[in-house]
User: Fold this.
Amino acid sequence: MLDSLISLSIRHRLLVVAVIALSFVYGGLAIQSLPIDVLPDLNRPTVTIFTESEGLSPEEVETLVTRPIEAAVYGANGVVRVRSASSIGLSIVWVEFDWDMDIYVARQIVSEKLSQAREAIYGRVNPVLGPITSIMGNIMAIGVTSGDETDSMTLRTLAEWDIRQRLLAIPGIAQITVVGGALRQFQVLIDPDRLVFHRVPLFAVLEALDETNLNATGGFLLTDYTEGLIRVLGRAQTVEQIAATVVPLPDHPDRRVTIKQVADVKLGGPMAPRGDASINADPGVILSIQKQPDADTVSLVAAIQSELAAIQPTLPSDVALHDDIFSQSTFIETAVSNVEEALRDGAILVAVVLFLFLLNLRTTFITLTTIPLIFGSHVNRVSGPWPVD
Assistant:
Protein backbone atom coordinates (compact mmCIF):
# COMPACT_ATOMS: atom_id res chain seq x y z
CA MET A 1 0.00 0.00 0.00
CA LEU A 2 2.75 2.43 0.95
CA ASP A 3 4.77 1.54 -2.15
CA SER A 4 1.75 2.19 -4.36
CA LEU A 5 1.16 5.57 -2.71
CA ILE A 6 4.80 6.58 -3.18
CA SER A 7 4.76 5.42 -6.80
CA LEU A 8 1.55 7.32 -7.48
CA SER A 9 2.98 10.50 -5.94
CA ILE A 10 6.14 10.22 -8.06
CA ARG A 11 4.16 9.74 -11.28
CA HIS A 12 1.95 12.78 -10.53
CA ARG A 13 4.51 15.13 -9.08
CA LEU A 14 2.82 18.30 -10.33
CA LEU A 15 -0.52 17.29 -8.85
CA VAL A 16 1.10 16.60 -5.46
CA VAL A 17 2.87 19.98 -5.51
CA ALA A 18 -0.39 21.73 -6.43
CA VAL A 19 -2.27 20.02 -3.59
CA ILE A 20 0.48 20.97 -1.14
CA ALA A 21 0.43 24.60 -2.35
CA LEU A 22 -3.35 24.77 -2.01
CA SER A 23 -3.08 23.27 1.48
CA PHE A 24 -0.61 25.98 2.50
CA VAL A 25 -2.87 28.71 1.11
CA TYR A 26 -5.95 27.29 2.83
CA GLY A 27 -4.07 26.90 6.11
CA GLY A 28 -2.82 30.47 5.97
CA LEU A 29 -6.31 31.82 5.40
CA ALA A 30 -7.77 29.61 8.14
CA ILE A 31 -5.17 30.72 10.70
CA GLN A 32 -5.93 34.40 10.03
CA SER A 33 -9.64 33.90 10.83
CA LEU A 34 -9.16 31.40 13.68
CA PRO A 35 -10.65 32.76 16.95
CA ILE A 36 -8.23 32.72 19.87
CA ASP A 37 -9.14 33.21 23.50
CA VAL A 38 -7.35 33.22 26.83
CA LEU A 39 -9.14 30.05 27.95
CA PRO A 40 -11.92 27.91 26.49
CA ASP A 41 -15.43 28.32 27.89
CA LEU A 42 -15.21 26.50 31.23
CA ASN A 43 -18.70 27.04 32.65
CA ARG A 44 -21.87 25.10 32.00
CA PRO A 45 -24.74 26.89 30.24
CA THR A 46 -25.98 29.12 33.07
CA VAL A 47 -29.05 31.36 33.31
CA THR A 48 -28.93 34.15 35.89
CA ILE A 49 -32.14 35.50 37.45
CA PHE A 50 -32.10 38.96 39.08
CA THR A 51 -34.96 40.10 41.30
CA GLU A 52 -35.08 43.49 43.03
CA SER A 53 -37.33 43.77 46.08
CA GLU A 54 -36.88 47.14 47.75
CA GLY A 55 -37.23 47.33 51.51
CA LEU A 56 -36.80 43.63 52.28
CA SER A 57 -34.08 42.30 54.55
CA PRO A 58 -31.85 39.42 53.39
CA GLU A 59 -33.92 36.93 55.42
CA GLU A 60 -37.15 38.15 53.83
CA VAL A 61 -35.60 38.11 50.36
CA GLU A 62 -34.48 34.52 50.91
CA THR A 63 -37.90 33.39 52.17
CA LEU A 64 -40.28 35.38 49.97
CA VAL A 65 -38.36 35.71 46.70
CA THR A 66 -35.38 33.37 46.35
CA ARG A 67 -36.98 30.14 47.57
CA PRO A 68 -40.09 30.39 45.33
CA ILE A 69 -37.83 30.98 42.32
CA GLU A 70 -35.61 28.05 43.25
CA ALA A 71 -38.65 25.81 43.70
CA ALA A 72 -39.92 26.85 40.27
CA VAL A 73 -36.71 25.98 38.39
CA TYR A 74 -35.92 22.78 40.31
CA GLY A 75 -36.69 19.75 38.20
CA ALA A 76 -36.68 21.65 34.89
CA ASN A 77 -35.37 19.74 31.91
CA GLY A 78 -31.57 19.63 31.91
CA VAL A 79 -31.02 21.50 35.21
CA VAL A 80 -27.90 20.24 37.01
CA ARG A 81 -27.49 22.71 39.87
CA VAL A 82 -29.25 25.76 41.31
CA ARG A 83 -27.36 28.34 43.40
CA SER A 84 -28.57 31.59 44.93
CA ALA A 85 -27.53 34.66 46.90
CA SER A 86 -29.85 36.95 48.86
CA SER A 87 -28.90 40.42 50.06
CA ILE A 88 -30.70 43.61 51.02
CA GLY A 89 -33.41 44.08 48.39
CA LEU A 90 -31.75 41.80 45.81
CA SER A 91 -32.03 38.12 44.92
CA ILE A 92 -29.70 36.36 42.44
CA VAL A 93 -30.33 32.79 41.33
CA TRP A 94 -27.95 30.85 39.04
CA VAL A 95 -29.52 27.94 37.15
CA GLU A 96 -26.88 25.64 35.65
CA PHE A 97 -27.75 23.21 32.84
CA ASP A 98 -25.96 20.20 31.41
CA TRP A 99 -23.07 20.73 28.99
CA ASP A 100 -25.03 19.77 25.87
CA MET A 101 -27.90 22.20 26.55
CA ASP A 102 -28.27 25.14 24.17
CA ILE A 103 -28.19 28.39 26.14
CA TYR A 104 -31.18 29.86 24.30
CA VAL A 105 -33.27 26.75 25.00
CA ALA A 106 -32.18 26.97 28.65
CA ARG A 107 -33.34 30.61 28.87
CA GLN A 108 -36.69 29.67 27.35
CA ILE A 109 -37.15 26.88 29.92
CA VAL A 110 -36.36 29.25 32.80
CA SER A 111 -38.71 31.93 31.42
CA GLU A 112 -41.58 29.43 31.25
CA LYS A 113 -40.92 28.28 34.82
CA LEU A 114 -40.85 31.87 36.09
CA SER A 115 -44.15 32.69 34.39
CA GLN A 116 -45.73 29.74 36.21
CA ALA A 117 -44.34 30.89 39.58
CA ARG A 118 -45.45 34.56 39.48
CA GLU A 119 -48.19 34.05 42.07
CA ALA A 120 -45.82 32.40 44.56
CA ILE A 121 -43.31 35.26 44.47
CA TYR A 122 -43.73 38.11 46.92
CA GLY A 123 -45.46 41.37 46.00
CA ARG A 124 -44.85 43.26 42.77
CA VAL A 125 -41.27 42.15 42.18
CA ASN A 126 -40.31 41.28 38.63
CA PRO A 127 -37.62 38.61 38.08
CA VAL A 128 -35.49 39.29 34.99
CA LEU A 129 -32.92 37.16 33.19
CA GLY A 130 -29.34 38.40 33.06
CA PRO A 131 -27.46 38.70 29.77
CA ILE A 132 -25.64 35.77 28.19
CA THR A 133 -22.04 36.01 29.36
CA SER A 134 -19.00 33.75 29.82
CA ILE A 135 -16.86 33.02 32.86
CA MET A 136 -13.98 34.70 31.00
CA GLY A 137 -16.24 37.34 29.50
CA ASN A 138 -14.75 40.40 31.21
CA ILE A 139 -12.55 41.44 28.28
CA MET A 140 -11.90 45.15 28.74
CA ALA A 141 -12.05 48.08 31.15
CA ILE A 142 -12.37 51.65 29.88
CA GLY A 143 -11.68 54.70 32.02
CA VAL A 144 -13.27 58.13 31.63
CA THR A 145 -11.72 61.17 33.30
CA SER A 146 -12.38 64.90 33.15
CA GLY A 147 -10.79 68.21 34.05
CA ASP A 148 -12.19 71.16 35.95
CA GLU A 149 -14.92 72.00 33.44
CA THR A 150 -16.89 68.73 33.71
CA ASP A 151 -18.10 67.65 37.15
CA SER A 152 -18.53 64.06 38.35
CA MET A 153 -22.31 64.00 37.73
CA THR A 154 -21.92 65.15 34.13
CA LEU A 155 -19.11 62.65 33.64
CA ARG A 156 -21.27 59.78 34.91
CA THR A 157 -24.13 60.91 32.67
CA LEU A 158 -21.84 60.92 29.62
CA ALA A 159 -20.52 57.46 30.46
CA GLU A 160 -23.97 56.00 31.22
CA TRP A 161 -26.06 57.45 28.39
CA ASP A 162 -23.61 58.30 25.60
CA ILE A 163 -20.50 56.10 25.69
CA ARG A 164 -22.22 52.98 27.06
CA GLN A 165 -25.11 53.12 24.59
CA ARG A 166 -22.81 53.47 21.59
CA LEU A 167 -20.59 50.60 22.71
CA LEU A 168 -23.58 48.31 23.30
CA ALA A 169 -24.40 48.62 19.60
CA ILE A 170 -21.21 46.68 18.74
CA PRO A 171 -22.06 43.02 17.95
CA GLY A 172 -20.57 40.63 20.51
CA ILE A 173 -20.92 42.78 23.66
CA ALA A 174 -23.18 41.24 26.30
CA GLN A 175 -23.27 44.01 28.90
CA ILE A 176 -21.38 47.04 30.18
CA THR A 177 -21.22 47.88 33.89
CA VAL A 178 -20.57 51.50 34.84
CA VAL A 179 -18.85 52.24 38.16
CA GLY A 180 -17.86 55.55 39.68
CA GLY A 181 -18.91 59.15 39.31
CA ALA A 182 -22.06 60.65 40.80
CA LEU A 183 -25.61 59.85 39.68
CA ARG A 184 -27.73 62.92 39.00
CA GLN A 185 -31.33 62.69 40.21
CA PHE A 186 -34.49 64.70 40.77
CA GLN A 187 -34.94 65.14 44.52
CA VAL A 188 -38.27 65.78 46.19
CA LEU A 189 -37.54 66.89 49.76
CA ILE A 190 -40.81 66.58 51.66
CA ASP A 191 -41.36 68.96 54.59
CA PRO A 192 -43.32 67.26 57.45
CA ASP A 193 -44.53 70.60 58.81
CA ARG A 194 -46.07 71.57 55.48
CA LEU A 195 -47.69 68.15 55.20
CA VAL A 196 -49.41 68.71 58.54
CA PHE A 197 -50.38 72.29 57.66
CA HIS A 198 -52.03 71.27 54.38
CA ARG A 199 -53.39 68.03 55.91
CA VAL A 200 -51.82 65.89 53.17
CA PRO A 201 -50.86 62.27 53.97
CA LEU A 202 -47.40 61.13 52.91
CA PHE A 203 -48.71 58.24 50.80
CA ALA A 204 -50.74 60.69 48.69
CA VAL A 205 -47.56 62.56 47.72
CA LEU A 206 -45.80 59.31 46.85
CA GLU A 207 -48.74 58.12 44.74
CA ALA A 208 -48.90 61.45 42.93
CA LEU A 209 -45.21 61.22 42.03
CA ASP A 210 -45.58 57.61 40.92
CA GLU A 211 -48.85 57.71 38.97
CA THR A 212 -48.86 61.14 37.34
CA ASN A 213 -45.35 61.00 35.89
CA LEU A 214 -46.31 59.16 32.71
CA ASN A 215 -47.76 59.71 29.25
CA ALA A 216 -51.14 58.37 28.19
CA THR A 217 -53.06 57.95 24.96
CA GLY A 218 -56.22 59.82 24.10
CA GLY A 219 -57.24 57.89 21.01
CA PHE A 220 -57.37 59.34 17.49
CA LEU A 221 -58.71 62.52 15.96
CA LEU A 222 -60.43 61.55 12.71
CA THR A 223 -60.89 63.87 9.75
CA ASP A 224 -62.10 63.22 6.22
CA TYR A 225 -58.74 61.97 4.93
CA THR A 226 -56.38 61.67 7.88
CA GLU A 227 -56.25 60.65 11.50
CA GLY A 228 -54.12 62.16 14.22
CA LEU A 229 -52.85 60.64 17.44
CA ILE A 230 -54.02 62.31 20.65
CA ARG A 231 -51.48 62.12 23.46
CA VAL A 232 -51.65 63.22 27.09
CA LEU A 233 -48.13 64.33 27.99
CA GLY A 234 -47.74 63.83 31.72
CA ARG A 235 -44.12 62.77 32.03
CA ALA A 236 -42.14 65.43 33.83
CA GLN A 237 -39.09 66.84 32.08
CA THR A 238 -38.13 69.70 34.40
CA VAL A 239 -38.11 70.58 38.09
CA GLU A 240 -40.96 73.03 37.53
CA GLN A 241 -43.19 70.33 36.04
CA ILE A 242 -42.60 68.03 39.03
CA ALA A 243 -43.30 70.88 41.45
CA ALA A 244 -46.60 71.65 39.68
CA THR A 245 -47.88 68.06 40.04
CA VAL A 246 -51.27 67.99 41.78
CA VAL A 247 -51.65 65.72 44.81
CA PRO A 248 -55.10 64.05 44.77
CA LEU A 249 -57.01 64.15 48.07
CA PRO A 250 -59.89 61.65 48.01
CA ASP A 251 -61.29 62.93 51.33
CA HIS A 252 -61.30 66.54 50.10
CA PRO A 253 -61.97 66.54 46.31
CA ASP A 254 -62.57 70.31 46.30
CA ARG A 255 -59.02 71.06 47.52
CA ARG A 256 -55.96 71.28 45.28
CA VAL A 257 -52.45 70.87 46.64
CA THR A 258 -49.32 70.71 44.52
CA ILE A 259 -45.97 69.13 45.24
CA LYS A 260 -44.25 72.51 45.67
CA GLN A 261 -46.62 73.35 48.54
CA VAL A 262 -45.44 70.38 50.62
CA ALA A 263 -41.90 69.76 49.35
CA ASP A 264 -38.84 71.33 47.78
CA VAL A 265 -37.97 69.96 44.34
CA LYS A 266 -34.49 70.28 42.92
CA LEU A 267 -32.21 68.72 40.35
CA GLY A 268 -29.10 67.62 42.11
CA GLY A 269 -27.48 64.77 43.84
CA PRO A 270 -25.44 62.88 44.06
CA MET A 271 -27.30 59.69 44.78
CA ALA A 272 -25.87 57.58 47.60
CA PRO A 273 -22.77 56.02 45.94
CA ARG A 274 -22.26 52.28 45.64
CA GLY A 275 -18.61 51.85 44.75
CA ASP A 276 -16.13 54.30 43.31
CA ALA A 277 -13.53 54.39 40.56
CA SER A 278 -10.24 56.12 39.85
CA ILE A 279 -7.80 56.19 36.93
CA ASN A 280 -4.15 56.80 37.82
CA ALA A 281 -5.25 58.03 41.27
CA ASP A 282 -7.63 60.59 39.71
CA PRO A 283 -11.41 60.23 40.21
CA GLY A 284 -13.25 58.98 37.17
CA VAL A 285 -15.68 56.41 35.77
CA ILE A 286 -14.89 52.82 34.79
CA LEU A 287 -16.82 50.90 32.13
CA SER A 288 -16.36 47.14 32.51
CA ILE A 289 -17.20 45.32 29.26
CA GLN A 290 -18.32 41.69 29.07
CA LYS A 291 -18.56 39.79 25.82
CA GLN A 292 -20.90 37.09 24.57
CA PRO A 293 -19.53 33.52 24.79
CA ASP A 294 -19.00 33.03 21.05
CA ALA A 295 -17.44 36.42 20.30
CA ASP A 296 -13.80 36.69 19.20
CA THR A 297 -11.95 38.69 21.83
CA VAL A 298 -9.24 40.20 19.61
CA SER A 299 -11.59 41.42 16.87
CA LEU A 300 -14.13 42.66 19.43
CA VAL A 301 -11.51 44.72 21.30
CA ALA A 302 -10.36 46.18 17.97
CA ALA A 303 -13.97 47.18 17.18
CA ILE A 304 -14.32 48.77 20.63
CA GLN A 305 -11.12 50.78 20.21
CA SER A 306 -12.27 51.95 16.79
CA GLU A 307 -15.60 53.10 18.24
CA LEU A 308 -13.83 54.89 21.12
CA ALA A 309 -11.75 56.79 18.59
CA ALA A 310 -15.00 57.93 16.95
CA ILE A 311 -16.57 58.87 20.31
CA GLN A 312 -13.66 60.98 21.62
CA PRO A 313 -14.23 64.00 19.30
CA THR A 314 -17.89 64.21 20.40
CA LEU A 315 -17.03 64.56 24.10
CA PRO A 316 -16.19 67.79 25.94
CA SER A 317 -12.62 68.96 25.47
CA ASP A 318 -11.56 68.08 29.03
CA VAL A 319 -13.01 64.52 28.96
CA ALA A 320 -10.54 61.75 28.05
CA LEU A 321 -11.04 58.04 27.33
CA HIS A 322 -8.49 55.49 28.57
CA ASP A 323 -8.56 52.12 26.79
CA ASP A 324 -5.23 50.86 28.20
CA ILE A 325 -6.39 49.96 31.72
CA PHE A 326 -7.18 46.30 31.04
CA SER A 327 -7.65 44.31 27.85
CA GLN A 328 -7.65 40.55 27.31
CA SER A 329 -6.44 41.06 23.75
CA THR A 330 -3.07 42.25 25.15
CA PHE A 331 -2.51 38.86 26.81
CA ILE A 332 -3.67 37.02 23.68
CA GLU A 333 -1.43 39.02 21.35
CA THR A 334 1.54 38.52 23.68
CA ALA A 335 0.90 34.76 23.84
CA VAL A 336 0.53 34.51 20.05
CA SER A 337 3.77 36.44 19.61
CA ASN A 338 5.52 34.01 21.96
CA VAL A 339 4.14 31.05 19.98
CA GLU A 340 5.35 32.59 16.71
CA GLU A 341 8.85 33.05 18.15
CA ALA A 342 8.88 29.47 19.42
CA LEU A 343 7.76 28.14 16.02
CA ARG A 344 10.40 30.20 14.24
CA ASP A 345 13.20 29.06 16.52
CA GLY A 346 11.96 25.47 16.42
CA ALA A 347 11.83 25.45 12.61
CA ILE A 348 15.40 26.73 12.41
CA LEU A 349 16.65 24.11 14.87
CA VAL A 350 14.78 21.30 13.08
CA ALA A 351 16.21 22.38 9.73
CA VAL A 352 19.76 22.43 11.12
CA VAL A 353 19.39 19.03 12.80
CA LEU A 354 17.85 17.43 9.70
CA PHE A 355 20.59 18.77 7.45
CA LEU A 356 23.32 17.55 9.82
CA PHE A 357 21.80 14.06 9.89
CA LEU A 358 20.80 13.80 6.21
CA LEU A 359 23.48 16.00 4.59
CA ASN A 360 21.10 16.58 1.66
CA LEU A 361 19.30 19.86 0.99
CA ARG A 362 16.57 18.24 -1.12
CA THR A 363 15.68 15.63 1.51
CA THR A 364 15.75 18.27 4.22
CA PHE A 365 13.39 20.50 2.26
CA ILE A 366 10.94 17.63 1.67
CA THR A 367 10.93 16.73 5.35
CA LEU A 368 10.41 20.35 6.43
CA THR A 369 7.50 20.61 3.99
CA THR A 370 5.84 17.48 5.37
CA ILE A 371 5.94 18.54 9.05
CA PRO A 372 3.57 21.57 8.75
CA LEU A 373 1.19 19.52 6.57
CA ILE A 374 0.90 16.85 9.28
CA PHE A 375 0.49 19.56 11.95
CA GLY A 376 -2.12 21.36 9.84
CA SER A 377 -4.20 18.22 9.35
CA HIS A 378 -4.28 17.83 13.13
CA VAL A 379 -5.29 21.47 13.61
CA ASN A 380 -8.22 21.11 11.19
CA ARG A 381 -9.73 18.50 13.49
CA VAL A 382 -9.76 20.93 16.42
CA SER A 383 -13.00 22.90 16.78
CA GLY A 384 -13.69 26.09 18.70
CA PRO A 385 -11.37 28.89 19.74
CA TRP A 386 -7.77 28.13 20.63
CA PRO A 387 -6.76 28.73 24.24
CA VAL A 388 -3.42 30.40 24.87
CA ASP A 389 -1.16 30.16 27.90
Remarks:
- The first strand starts at residue 36 and ends at 37.
- The mean pLDDT is 84.
- Residues 74 and 204 are 42 Å apart (CA to CA).
- The first helix runs from residue 2 to 11.
